[in-house]
Design brief:
The complex is a heterodimer of chains A (254) and B (323). Chain A is mainly α and 254 residues long. Chain A contains 11 helices and 4 strands. Chain B starts with a helix and ends in a 10-residue tail after the last helix. The chains are: A mainly alpha (254), B mainly alpha (323). Chains A and B meet through β2, α2, α4, α5 and α6 of A and α1, α2, α3, α8 and α12 of B.
């Protein structure tokens, strides 16, 4: 019934080419989610630094009590550990978590190479080394670039993309004459039904039920046989009618 | 094909790819499993193109895009190096990669050296003409101590060497890092580091000469100074390379030119880090030591610089100069 206007648009700058030159659009993470991730990471790093500092402040004087030299080496070790912790936080997590970090996981983003592949260790180190510069000018670079690359991303040849698992349930079938846009509306409603105000959710579901009855009068009746009287059920709990009618198909059923 | 039929017919392939990816992420697949994964990726990639075109924005289109990206990322990865491969890569870096990159940027190191010497000359002349210029860098108490024939480097002897060593190494790396990443600011940061360090050096030499203390200063810096200044020149030279790529990218897109220069700069920076750590130790343990004679300190300084230049140039390498 309705086709999205951007269905046949040319691949954009965000697109990469997969096998057989099939375009694959990268879901670029822009400034909002990246700042959220950075905030969470720096908060965690700050806590780690404070904990390490407190441990050293307690341990070093005790070591000095036994032997002054040992205490001094302990102090040197403390400087080394704190500097390493500061510099290695992002490098360590991005290597171990495959382009992620605790903050990035929270924001649902991940670092990938420019061609959408797994990011290499060298690129991770490179993008992390210029982080201090990016704290000053990175936001400006990200705002001006359609791919939201900061200086480190440009040097390392990396991108940051959204990487959240899709948990939305797909509709098993569509009424006659329905297209992608209507499917999106119903999927979004069923996906968010627990978050919506019940009265508002049922009102939206009721309007959709009436639209379906108008487009394809037999659709609901054929798919809600277990619900008893369709009219009564549609009036009492239209959300349940929609959920039953659009339930996913059993796998492999032709 | 309608939305429901599309899912019923192709759904098992998508689930198959999901299962294969999960298994591959847990343990490396054998040859057959890898081929099956690549085939499933190809099928899902075509399905996602169809879904983006026919059912854009739907849960199926989003799921297929996510799955395709996951498989694409897994299939497009560098070989993970372990054991022997890691050792070979490490040796190759010092024998080939670092020297070839060092040779390629030699002209920029010349520019870098000229800026440092220019700054030093300026510092020397200005401080000779007006002694007060030295107060910009040195506290009045330090200058007063010079008048009494005491030099500030003596305080390093009063502090424990491990502490001094770690502080100096961290500071040296910070200066080099700033010289390098300063290139991202169109080379301004690197130029600043070179001029400032040169000016500081010239000014300090001038003020010590005024109080006839230059021999004490030279005695202190002769073991670590030559290599330290060389490393600052190299690190800032790589920063200038990044700045040049940003300003004059040539026929390449600016981003690509910056990426190439940035990668080379990173390799050169990596090659200088161990030397900075070594310098931290020399500066903390050997330079302030009154037991070592001046001639021995000069010999150590020359030996360190020669060792670095041999590693950086690698005269035994007969390779491409522009590779």
């Amino acid at each position: 019934m309705l086709e999205s206007s951007d269905a046949h648009r040319a691949p954009s700058e965000e697109a990469i080419l997969g096998l057989d030159n099939v375009a694959l659009e990268l879901p670029i993470a822009h400034i909002g989610s990246r700042i959220l991730a950075a905030f969470a990471d720096y908060l965690l790093l700050f806590v780690a630094l404070v904990v390490a500092l407190v441990i050293f402040l307690i341990a070093v004087p005790r070591l000095s009590f036994f032997n002054e030299d040992v205490g001094m080496w302990g102090f040197a070790l403390a400087v080394l550990v704190l500097v390493t912790l500061h510099w290695m936080y992002f490098i360590f997590f991005e290597i171990v978590m495959d382009g992620g970090s605790p903050g990035k996981r929270l924001a649902g983003i991940r670092v990938v190479s420019r061609d959408g592949g797994k990011v290499g260790g060298g690129a991770i180190v490179l993008r992390s080394l210029v982080r201090e510069i990016d704290i000053m000018v990175g936001v400006l670079f990200m705002v001006l670039d359609p791919l939201a690359r900061r200086v480190g991303d440009r040097l390392g040849g990396t991108l940051v993309i959204h990487d959240k698992p899709v948990e939305a349930v797909a509709l098993g079938t569509l009424p006659r004459g329905w297209g992608a846009r209507e499917a999106q509306v119903v999927e979004a409603l069923l996906d968010r039904r627990d978050e919506l105000d019940p009265w508002r959710g049922q009102r939206l579901a009721g309007r959709l039920v009436r639209l379906i009855e108008h487009c394809d009068p037999h659709f609901l009746a054929d798919r809600t046989t277990g619900l008893g009287s369709l009219a009564a059920e549609a009036a009492a709990d239209p959300m349940a009618v929609l959920a039953t009618a659009f339930r996913p198909p059993p796998a492999g059923e032709g | 094909m309608d939305y429901g039929r599309f899912q019923r017919l192709r759904g098992p392939i998508w689930e198959g790819l999901e299962a294969r990816l999960k298994a591959a992420e847990a343990a490396p697949p054998d040859h057959d499993a890898l081929e099956a994964l690549a085939l499933a990726y190809r099928q899902v990639l075509h399905d996602q193109a169809l879904a983006q075109s026919r059912f854009p924005g739907t849960a199926v289109a989003r799921r297929l895009k996510n799955l395709s990206l996951r498989a694409h990322r897994w299939l497009h990865q560098e070989n993970r190096l372990t054991g022997r491969g890691l050792v070979v890569r490490f040796l190759d870096f010092w024998v080939r990669t670092f020297p070839l990159t060092f040779r390629r940027y030699l002209p920029l190191f010349g520019v870098s050296l000229a800026l440092l010497l220019g700054g030093a000359l300026m510092g020397l002349l200005m401080t000779t003409v007006r002694m007060e210029v030295a107060y910009v860098f040195l506290a009045p108490e330090v200058v007063a101590a010079l008048k009494e024939q005491r030099i500030w480097t003596d305080t390093l002897r009063e502090m424990p060497s491990p502490v001094v060593g770690s502080m100096i190494a961290a500071n040296n790396i910070k200066v080099a890092l700033f010289g390098w990443v300063g290139g991202a600011l169109a080379g301004i940061g690197s130029t600043y580091v070179l001029l400032l360090n040169g000016f500081l050096l010239g000014s300090v030499i001038s003020i010590t000469m005024r109080f006839s203390m230059e021999h004490r200063l030279l005695d202190f810096i002769s073991a670590h100074g030559p290599l330290e200044l060389t490393l600052i020149v190299v690190a800032s030279g790589t920063g200038l390379a990044v700045g040049r790529a940003l300003i004059a990218a040539g026929d390449q897109p600016r981003g690509e030119a910056m990426q190439t220069a940035g990668w080379d700069a990173f390799l050169l920076f990596l090659g200088t880090v161990p030397w900075f750590l070594l310098l931290g130790l020399v500066e903390a343990f050997l330079s302030p030591s009154p037991d070592l004679g001046s001639s021995l300190k000069v010999a150590i300084g020359v030996a360190l610089l020669t060792a670095f230049l041999i590693v950086a140039w690698n005269p035994f390498l007969r390779g491409r100069l522009h590779g």
